[in-house]
Amino acid sequence: MSKEAPLSNAERDFILEALREDVRLDGRNPDQFRPLSVSFGDEYGHVKLQLGKTSLVVRISAEVTKPRDDRPFDGLFQINLELSAMGSPAWENGRSNDLEAYVTHVLDSVVRRSNALDTESLCILKGVSCWSIRADVHVLDYDGNLTDAACIAIMTGLQHFRRPDAVVRDGQVIVYGVEERVPVALNITHKPLSITFNSYNEGKSIILDATRKEEQASEGELVIGINNGGDVCFLSKFSGAPVDPMEMVTKSTVALEKVKEINAQMEKAMQTDLAKRAKVGMADLSRAENDR
Amino acid sequence: MSTPLILLPGDEVPSSHLPSTKSNPLKLGSGVRLLSQPSAKPAASNHILTATQAGILATDAKRNTVSLQSFSNRRYIPTTNDLVIAQVHHSSIDYFHCIVTPHTAQALLGQLSFEGATKKTRPMLKGGDLVYARVSSVGVGAGAEVEITCVNPATGKAEPGGLGPLTGGMVFDISTGFSARLIRASSSSADHGDAIDGLVVLAELGKKLESLGGFEIAVGRNGKVWIDCSAAGENAIKSTIAVGRCLQTTDDKDLNAMDQKKLVASIDKGTDDVSSLRWARNIAVLAPLSIPSPAQYPLENSGNRKLADLRPRSKAGIFPPFWRSLASCSLP
Amino acid sequence: MVGPTASLSNLSRSDGSASYKCPATGYDVLGAVNAPIELPARRDALKPEEATVEVFVKPGNTTAGVGERHVEGILRNVLSKVVLGRERGFPRRGVVITLGIVGGETVDRGDSYLTILPALLHTSLLALLSAAVPLSMTFSATLMGVDKSGAIITDLSAADAKAAASLHVLAFTSKNHLLLNESEGRFDFDTWEQVRERALSICQDMTTPGPDGDVTMGEEADGSRPEGFVRETVEDRLYKDYSWKIDSI
């Protein structure tokens, strides 16, 4: 059963009727996100993100591998999203569904193909070895707007992640442990995020960050991938009712505002965490010295 | 009751905690089962009961029942005589196939299982329509089908009151534990003003009523609550959302009576114009009288239900218009 | 030793869930249970009179492979024994357990899965309790290692496990039946018997003499041993869920 339970007629009618009055079930404004909170695990690049009742964990990992033959100067980067029955009883373990394919496609376009992570910087030795960076998305609770939540978490994870240092000496690749050398941050070229809009009532009501029920009642979806500089790197009108072209222009302005706001919030949370780590690291160091 | 007794699966229920009345046999609710009965003396005190779930032991000396109260987020399992809000999936010649809980087998609702329904007057329900129904049978053995009904077959009436198609309004999801509490509280507080199960939110919501009409509420044991404020006219949508959010917040945050009062107060910054249309009185008006005897189902999950459980759909007061403020209300 | 940290019902969509963190190995596992639900694709494979237990293990930062399938098989066997699949509402339905390894080292392909097995078992148990799935009894599990000199080590870290000559995971029910025995490496019967006795005493939540002969002190009492901490975790959550009731007494 790969489908969520269908929405009842009463719920659909009510959601649409309420949106005509610009009211949402949780009392939000049409262009307001649910409360967004982020926390970091013990390792670098371990991000837990909560957007309303949607929650997910992203883990970034790195390993040394051989670059592809046709791109000897490039490292590898892949985003892996697998929906399990944890996120929603509607999802079957070990089977992919439409939502998984769709969200993977959007994440791939917004984060990977927009070159948010500079893959050339992942090259260690031309044609011989490079870093392979992997982002795993674990959906813990699904209550709508998976795309935006996953995108925010992946971008935050990439910025938070530190890979081990590696050098080439006499044609040999040496990877230093985290204890030997300070691990290195990834080279992030820009910070694009996806912003999803859902439209209702023949395009008259357009809202941000829809919940699961709101998504089910939606007539169409518009996804804009945009970075802090206002460069649109992805725009998708995947399915559903048509949207007025002018709306796309005005909505990209809204999206830009949101992206700036979210990026600032994530940056702040990350700096707080990194500062805390630095402090703990120093304390450990001094303790180790005292022991001797 | 002193400190609550918490049991894990496999734990024996201490016989000192069992009700001591011997007049009628002990009834087992959910989470406990009879492991063995020593053959030497089949006295009531010789039962060995073990827990099958983790929960708080609850006994009712009057009805001679014992059951375990487990976590509130669990999935609803249909039990005879429970009231549920079901959603029609599709209809066939004889039945409406209804969803009681998502991703489980559909329940059957007879095409004629409505008050006064004949072949010509039966309700024409479409997929996605909602009905308020009673679980009439859960079948026997593996693969048995759950049947629900909107009518009491003995009287031909929609008993308990309010059963039948739910039109308009809105359904909110709540935990199954909370829905059981709501059913107990919404019925019992009609008789006296005390908080039942620490739940005053409904009474508070009712007290805030305005003279425009009332809100209708139907609570399904399957973790759904239906609310309709259509009597409130232009404030219908906002008042429905306010009621729904009050209930969901109380559920999510396990609010105590004090916080529930604060929560309700926070949505109502307007008038305190209490009309003469009392919430409690409305319940009394709507309350049905025929109660199926739980004794017929000694092993069913009817452990904690009270007489009044079977009349939860009731009218209550409505609210003044300042719902938006709920979004910003802060909880302690 | 610091006890494991665990909590119940952290997720909202699934019927029951639990998170569990093992201090020695650093594994952080999140479990979700959906039960009883329909398993549409495999109706023919379902047992006619009982519930079917399904386990899915999702590694933190790799794709699931042979190792995960193997450990899923072990978990399914153990859990099927304690789940009462004939209770009302359960026959012919599925009990779907999803375990995500959200923190800790990655188990590399080909590495032993035994190190993480106790954490996975405990998470499943807690998640099943949280979903109120009927169980005949609870259980607890522990990982033991025997080093090259023949000494038994408990509370192994990942590095200890790599260096050990043999590894054993034993699980005992709350009635002290041996529920699971998975061993690997070279060892003889006497060693195994010693391991069993030691594991039983750990699982029984008894205070055992420490490695240096000292009787362990207060901090090792309740909560640090599997059986004790399961109860404690459950009680914490129940007190929270029923605070409205307990406060008013």
Lateral arrangement of strands in the main beta sheet of chain C: 1-2-3-5-4
Could you give the distance between the termini of chain C? 37 Å
Hey, roughly how much beta strand do the residues of chain B contain?
15-25%
> Describe the biggest sheet of chain C?
5 strands, mixed
- The gross shape of chain C turns out to be globular
Order of helices and strands of chain C: EEEEHEHEEHEEHHH
Provide a brief overview of the structure:
The complex is a heterotrimer of chains A (292), B (332) and C (249). Chain A is an alpha+beta fold and 292 residues long.
Write the layout of secondary structure elements.
The complex is a heterotrimer of chains A (292), B (332) and C (249).
Chain A: H1 9-20, E1 36-40, E2 46-51, E3 54-65, E4 76-81, H2 98-112, E5 123-125, E6 129-141, H3 146-160, E7 162-163, E8 166-169, E9 172-175, E10 184-185, E11 193-200, E12 205-208, H4 212-217, E13 220-226, E14 232-236, H5 245-291
Chain B: E1 6-7, E2 27-28, E3 32-36, E4 48-51, E5 55-60, E6 65-69, E7 83-91, E8 95-99, E9 107-110, E10 130-137, E11 147-149, E12 164-166, E13 170-173, H1 176-188, H2 201-207, E14 215-220, E15 224-228, H3 236-253, H4 257-267, H5 279-286, E16 314-316, H6 325-328
Parallel strand pairs in B: 2-6, 9-11
Antiparallel strand pairs in B: 1-5, 3-4, 5-6, 7-8, 7-10, 8-9, 10-11, 10-12, 13-15, 14-15, 14-16
Chain C: E1 5-8, E2 16-21, E3 28-37, E4 52-58, H1 66-82, E5 94-103, H2 117-130, E6 139-146, E7 152-154, H3 158-163, E8 166-173, E9 178-185, H4 189-203, H5 226-241, H6 243-246
Parallel strand pairs in C: 4-5
Antiparallel strand pairs in C: 1-2, 2-3, 3-5, 6-7, 6-8, 8-9
Helix pairs in contact in C: 2-5
